[in-house]
Write a structure and sequence with these properties.
Layout (H helix, E strand, L loop, with lengths): L1 H7 L13 H12 L10 E6 L2 H7 L15 E8 L6 H18 L3 E6 L4 E2 L4 E2 H9 L5 E10 L24
Antiparallel strand pairs: 1-2, 2-6, 3-6, 4-5
Helix pairs in contact: 2-4
The structure holds flavin mononucleotide.
């Protein structure tokens, strides 16, 4: 059941050296492309990166929160064309969520690595600009995030659904 998968999915930031099988890579691609978009624009692009040197460089595009990318077997960069799409962030975010859930379904660990609105303080430039340069992403595309993926090398406890914040749910009115 999808809910079981959602309960099990946690951010995984430690990965083993094991490569991701080609069939699993295909399923991750399929999941990304199945994500719904506003007006069915499908303005996103997904860059699948397995090259170790690129992963190492990507792990440094922002000052904090992305170091695990260097040990991942795969990073997926999500970039979306924003000029004709006022909801590009939503479109990209849904695709990211699909990838995260698919990774879980495939027995992989994954984590969202925020790029939009993040900086590399040392270089004094945005993480998005550095990512675009590294991956040759065209200038009219906005980089939203990376998803780091690999076989998990950590224990990630499922969410305890007894602790869900039901006070966040309102019926009829706030
Ligand atoms: C929009 C967004 C941005 C995030 N950015 C990062 C990040 O840059 N680095 C990181 O390690 N985790 C990042 N995360 C993962 C969150 O920290 C994580 O999902 C949250 O703490 C809940 O934990 P869980 O995913 O294990 O349930 C991000 C998650 C979201 C939804």
């Amino acid at each position: 059941m999808l809910l079981d998968l959602m309960i099990k999915r946690r951010s995984v930031r430690k990965y083993s050296d094991r490569k991701i099988e080609a069939e699993k890579l295909e399923l991750l691609k399929k999941a990304a492309l199945l994500a719904p978009t506003s007006k069915n624009k499908q303005g996103w692009e997904f860059i699948f990166i397995e090259n170790k040197d690129s992963l190492e460089k990507l792990s440094k595009v922002k000052s904090a929160g992305g170091t695990m990318v260097k040990d991942a077997a795969l990073a997926v960069a999500i970039a979306v064309k924003s000029s004709d799409n006022d909801v590009w962030i939503e479109d990209g975010s849904i695709a990211a969520s699909y990838i995260l859930l698919m990774a879980e379904e495939l027995g992989l660990g994954a984590c969202w690595v925020q790029i939009r609105n993040r900086n590399n303080d040392e270089a004094g430039i945005s993480a998005a600009q550095l990512t675009s340069e590294l991956l040759s992403i065209p200038q009219d595309m906005e980089v939203l995030c990376l998803i780091s993926i690999g076989y998990s090398a950590q224990e990630a406890k499922p969410t305890n659904s007894d602790n869900l914040k039901y006070n966040k749910i309102h019926c009829e009115k706030w």
